Amino acid sequence: MQNLNRPNPKSSPLQILQISAAVFVIILGLIVWAYFAEPLSQVLSPFWNDKLVDILIFIPAVGAAVAGTLLTRQFEKGEIPYHIWQAFTVGLWLWVAGEIGGMVNDVLYWDSGNYPDFSLVDVFWLLGYFFLGLSLYYQLRLVYGAKNRSRRIYLGLVALALLVTAGLTNLAAKAGLGEGSAWIILFVTVLYPVFDLTEGATAIWLSFLFRRGQWSRPWWGLILFALADSVGTFSWLGGYDLIPVVAQRILDFIALVAYPASYMVMGLTLLSNYFILRYGEDSGLLKVIKKNALSTSEK
Amino acid sequence: MKYYFRQIEDIPLSNSPVSAEIYFRGANATGLIEKQFNAGRSAVLLFIGGEPGTAYLFENGQSKSISLAEFLSLNDGGSHTRAIKLPDIAGRLMLLGLESQVKNKFAIADDEAWAKQINQWKQDQWNGLVEITSKNLHGFTFFWQGEPQKSDLIFSTPQGFVSDFPTLKNADDSAWDVTAYSHSDSAQAFQCTVLRLGATHWCNKILERYREMVGQKLLQMLDRELNRQIQPWRWNIKLDENDMLDGHFFPYLIDAAHAYRALFMAMGTQMDFVIGNNLTQKLLSETFEQVHPDEREVLKSQRLVPAAFSE
Fold first, then answer.
1. Strand order in B51-59's β-sheet?
2. pLDDT digit string (tens) for A18-76?
3. Domain map of chain B by residue range?
C-alpha cells in the first residue's frame, strides 16, 4: 500500500488549497466588478466585457474538471467510487465544453443577435446534466447499499424526467410561455430547470446524508449551480414581474455569484479529496482526525 | 496425565517456577508453567502477557482452579517443572478449555471420519472448543455456528505452532484423541471468545462497507491510522485491509471490551471526517444488524453499539 507520494516540500497541499481559494475569491470579485462596472465596455466594447466575465468563469470551470480528473485517477477502475467520480468529471468537462461553445456562439452571433434556439452548446449542457445525474445516482445507490451499477434504473429515471418535462412543456405553452418558439425548443427550455431541480434536490439530500463529511463536499457545488439557475427560471416564468426592482437586483447578484462559485466549490473540494487520497496523512488535511488519538472515554 | 503442547521445547530454566516466572514477567510473554507430579497429578499456571493468570490442578481426570500461592507451594517431592512460551491464541484457547467441561471424548482414526465429524458439527451449528491430542499434535480449535474459527485455531507440532486446520495425513498421525468441550454462557473465557468474534465480525463488515463507499486508498489510510493508534497499547490487534486480526489474549471481559470500545471509537471518528456522522451512523447500524444475534447480544452487553461510536 505504501504507494502514497510525498507532497512537494515547497508548497503543501493545504497551502495550494489556500492559494487556490484566495485566487477564486479574487476572480469572484473581478466577475462582480466586470459585470457591474463594465470596464471593457467603455474601453473596447460590450462584447469584450462579456468575454472577460466568460473567461473569468471559464477558469474555475476548467479547474474543477481538472481536479475531478485527478481525483478519479486515484481510484482503481473496479472500485465503485471510481465510477461516481468518473461520471462527475465527465459531466464537468461537458460543461466546460458548453462554456466554450457559449463563447464561440457569442463570436458568431453577438453582432446579429440571432442566436440559434438550439445549438451544440445545449447538447453539451444537457449531456453534462446526464453525467452529473449519473454520478448522483451511483452515489445514492452506494449509500443505500445497492452493489451493482446497473444503469437501467437511471435511464428509466431520465425517461421519467423527460416525460414530466413534456407535460410541463404543454402547461407552459398553454400559459403562453415561450411564445413563437417551436414545441421542442420550449421542451429544452423547460428541461433545464427540471434537471436543475432534480439534481439540486438530490445533491441536497446527499449533503444531508453525509452532513459535513469530506466526501460529500463536491455535491455542494451542484446545489449552488441549481440555485444560480433557479433565478433564471424564476425570471423566465415571469416572477420578476411580481417583485420590486431591488429584489430583482439581489436575485441577479445571487445568480451572478453562485454560478462561478459552484465551479469553485466543486474544484476546491475535489482537489482537497485528491490531495487526501494522493498524499494521505502527509497532505496535512487529515490533522483534524489525527488529533483524536485513541481514547477510551465514551462520547 | 495432562501435558500441554508437548511438541514445544521447554524454556531452558533450572526446573524452578520462580525463574520461569521471572522470565515471563521480564518478557511480557504469554506462557505456562507445568508441574508434573507422581500418580498422574499435574498443575498448570498460565501467564498472560507477563502476568500470572489462573492456576489449575489436574487430579483423577478432573481439573480445579487453585490460587497462585497454592500452585507455588505444590510439591510432592518428585515433581518436574516445565515452562513454555505460548502464542496468545494458544493461551486464550487453553484458558477456554480449562474453564469448560468435557462434553465427550472420542478417537479419530482416519481423515474420512474427521471430515464426517466436522460436517456433523456444521449441521448442528455447534458452538464449542475441540482439543486434539496425538503423538505429533496438540492444540485447540474453536467452533462457532458449526464453523472452525481461523482466528481461534492453533496446534503444536514438532515444527512449532501452526494455525492451519489439521488432517491426520498432514500431521503424520495414526489416530487422534479428540475432546469436545461445552461451556456455560456465563464463563468469562467463553464470553471473551464470543465478544472477540462479535467485535471481529462487526469490524470486518464495517471495513468492507467503508471500502465500498470510499475506495481502497481511504480504507488503507484508516487501517494505517488505527494501527498507529493501537501501537502504544501493545494490543496484538491489527487492521489489514478489510480484516481485523485479533491475536490478543484478554483474560477479562472488561479488558477486551475496553480495547474494542477504543478501537471502534477511533474508527467512528475517522469515518465521521470522511463520510460524515450521519452516514457513519448508518454504516455502523447496518453492519451491526448483520452480526450474528448471539455476538450482537454480547456486544450490546458491553455497550459496544453503533450509537456509541459516531457523533
1. B62-66, B51-59, B42-48, B31-36, B80-85
2. 999 999 999 999 999 998 888 888 888 888 988 999 999 999 999 999 999 999 999 98
3. 1-86, 88-183, 188-309
Shortest CA gap B203–chain A (Å):
16
Q: What is the pLDDT of residue A1?
A: 41
Q: Which of A70, A289, A291 to mutate to test the interface with B (most CBs of B within 10 A)?
A: A289
Q: Tell me, what's the pLDDT at A174? A: 79
Least confident of B69-78, B121-130, B263-272: B69-78
From the list B212, B214, B258, which residue is nearest A215 (CB)?
Answer: B214
In this model, does residue A298 exceed pLDDT 70? no
The nearest CA of chain B is from the CA of A288 a distance in Å of 8
DSSP chain B: ---TTTTSPPP---S-HHHHHHHHHHHT--EEEEEE-STT-EEEEEEETTEEEEEEEEETTEEEEE-HHHHHH---SS-EEEEEE--HHHHHHHHHHHTSEEEEEEEE-SHHHHHHHHHHHHHHT--EEEEEE-SS-EEEEEEETTEEEEEEEEEEETTEEE-S---HHHHT-S-EEEEEEE--TT-HHHHHHHHHHHHHHHHHHHHHHHHHHH-HHHHHHHHHHHHHHHGGGT-SEEEETTEEEE----SSHHHHHHHHHHHHHHHHHHHHHHHHHHHHHHHHHHHHHHS-HHHHHHHHHTT--GGGS--
Burial of B31 by CB count in 10 Å (0-12 exposed, 13-18 middle, 19+ buried)?
Answer: buried
Nearest to A294 among B266, B280, B286 (CB): B266
Q: What's the confidence (pLDDT) of residue A2?
A: 44
Q: Which residues fall within 8 angstroms of residue B9, CB to CB, at 6 or more apart? A: B84
Which residue out of B206, B264, B279, B309 would a mutagenesis test of the A interface target, given it has the greatest number of A Cβ atoms within 10 Å?
B279
Contacts of B210 (CB under 8 A, 6+ apart): B218, B219, B222, B271, B275, B283
Q: What percent of chain A has pLDDT over 90?
A: 34
Mean pLDDT, to the nearest integer, of A145-156? 72
**B-chain residues within 8 Å CB-CB of A70?**
none
Measured between alpha carbons, how far is A138 from A132 in angstroms, rounded to an integer? Answer: 10
Q: Which of B229, B276, B303 sits opposite A213 (nearest CB)?
A: B276
- Mutation site for B-interface testing, chosen from A140, A269, A296 by largest number of B Cβ within 10 Å: A296
Asked if B308 and A299 come within 8 Å (Cβ–Cβ), the reply is yes
Mean pLDDT across A117-137: 91
Q: Is B310 a residue whose pLDDT tops 90?
A: no
**Contact: B217, A277; criterion CB under 8 Å:** yes
Q: Do B212 and A142 touch (CB under 8 A)?
A: yes
Show residues of chain A in contact with B226, CB under 8 Å: 294
